[in-house]
Amino acid sequence: MVGERRFSSALVPSRVSREEPSLRRDATPRRYLMCPPAHFKVTYSINPWMDPTKPVDLPLAHAQWEDLRDRYRALGHTVETLTPDPGLPDMVFAANGALVVDGRVLGARFAYPERAGEAEIHLDWFRSHGYQDIHEPSHVNEGEGDFAVTASYILAGRGFRSSPLSHDEAQEFFGRPVIGLDLVDPRYYHLDTALSVLDGDEVMYYPDAFSPGSRGVLRRLFPDALIADGPDAAALGLNAVSDGRHVVLPQAATGLLAPLRDRGFEPVPMDLGELLKGGGSVKCCTQELRP
Ligand code: ARG
Predict the structure, then answer these.
(1) What is the pLDDT of residues 85-106, one digit of tens each?
(2) What is the chain's percent helix, strand, coil content, to nearest 5?
(3) Is any ligand 1 atom within 6 A of the Cβ of residue 162?
(4) Is residue 104 within 8 Å of 136, Cβ to Cβ?
(5) What is the DSSP string of 3-31?
(6) CA-CA distances (angstroms) from residue 25 to 21, 31, 201, 245, 253?
(7) Predicted pLDDT at 23
(8) 122, 190, 246, 285: which is the annotated catalytic residue?
């Protein structure tokens, strides 16, 4: 079977099989923060996906983004929106603006000056929406781009954007164990391009995006993880958002569909092709506001 050739079936829990997707998955309503791509364009290149010579179809980017927002709402989630700033073309990638856990906000500090102005806009949004516990960071971190929250840990990427020092800062602020992971492939420059949390302590990831030591850590912490292959990772298939049941993911990542279904998830493929020109997809556009 295609799914078994492309994925390490040994890592799939034995109680779940293709014939019998018996594992019951429950969605929980989520609250997301998004930013419409009103001023999205690719005029600089800070990751290998960005080619400023390639035109962006802005109306199409907008339509694809609206589809994503509407899909979340149709699934029962709440979507809040930020007001886009004409001088910040990457603002649509709202995941990078903060990390919110237990209603507490760790602000972002961007690695590149082109995006630096986004951090304050996110902080202002939290201040004006009743958030009391807001930490303005001392070290570079690109929010949920490099932080992923599982039931037991905060996983934290480093190597391209977020500083390893930001991991200590996050651990101290949230009082949760932060596990640093080294990213080694420039195409997967943020953790959320290489790993996605499906539910609790269940994740999917692309091993080759990580250093050998970090791969070892992931194997130890998540022995039953769904392992993605090169083509699905290259379609940014790991840039996905799960509500515990529905896994919203880029539609080109077709190899992930069967293994997700085998585990009882319901994949929700979306076309965000225009936003891919900026190096982002579903998850990059979506910041989760955890209560
Ligand atoms: N062009 C943006 C950048 O390079 C894309 C950010 C994508 N966001 C993400 N969460 N991976 O910063």
Answers:
(1) 999 999 999 999 999 999 999 9
(2) 35, 20, 45
(3) no
(4) no
(5) HHHHS-GGGS-TT--SS-----------E
(6) 10, 19, 14, 5, 21
(7) 77
(8) 190
CB 129 within 8 A of CB 104: no
Report yes or no on whether pTM surpasses 0.90. yes
* Model confidence pLDDT, tens digit, residues 70-79: 999 999 999 9
Q: How far apart are alpha carbons 181 and 191 in whole angstroms? A: 8
The confidence band for 10, taking pLDDT boundaries of 50, 70 and 90, is very low
Q: Are 141 and 100 in contact (CB under 8 A)?
A: no
Decide: 198 in ligand 1 pocket, CB within 6 A.
no
CA distance 118 to 289: 17
Query: Can you read off the two tokens belonging to residue 223?
Result: 């022995």
Answer whether 238 contacts ligand 1 (Cβ < 6 A). no
35 counts as catalytic: no
Distance of CA 117 to the CA centre of its chain: 21
Tell me the three state secondary structure of residue 164: helix
Which atom of ligand 1 is least distant from the CA of 278? 1
Residue identified by tokens 């420059």 is 189
Measured in angstroms, how far is the CA atom of residue 22 from the centroid of ligand 1? 36
